[in-house]
Amino acid sequence: MQGLIGYIIIGGCVCVAVVAAALFVRDVRTSERAAEKRRRLVSRLVGK
Predict the structure, then answer these.
(1) CA 20 to 30 Å from 39, out of 10, 16, 22, 46?
(2) Do the domain assignments include residue 1?
(3) First vs last Cα of the chain: how many Å apart?
(4) DSSP string, the chain
(5) Do the domain assignments include residue 34?
């Protein structure tokens, strides 16, 4: 029984880690996209 509880706890931790990693990757991608938009906007303003 104790071993089963340990597996459940470890499984939960793994799930949380995977979700956190996925959210982090998504945040990095969206911030890169936002940075790219900002760069384009700045170059457009500087160009004019």
Answers:
(1) 22
(2) no
(3) 71
(4) -HHHHHHHHHHHHHHHHHHHHHHHHHHHHHHHHHHHHHHHHHHHHHH-
(5) yes
- The model carries a pTM of 0.61
Q: What are the backbone dihedrals phi and psi of residue 4, each rounded to the nearest 5 degrees, phi first?
A: -65, -45
Q: Mean pLDDT per segment of 10 residues, for the chain of length 48 residues?
A: 91 96 94 92 86
Say how far apart CA 31 and CA 44 lie, in whole Å.
20
Distance CA 45, CA 48 (A): 5
Residue 17 vs residues 10, 13, 24, 25: alpha-carbon distances, Å: 10, 6, 10, 12
Domain range for 25 is 21-48
Is residue 33, in this structure, part of any structural domain at all?
yes
Q: Is residue 16 part of a domain?
A: no
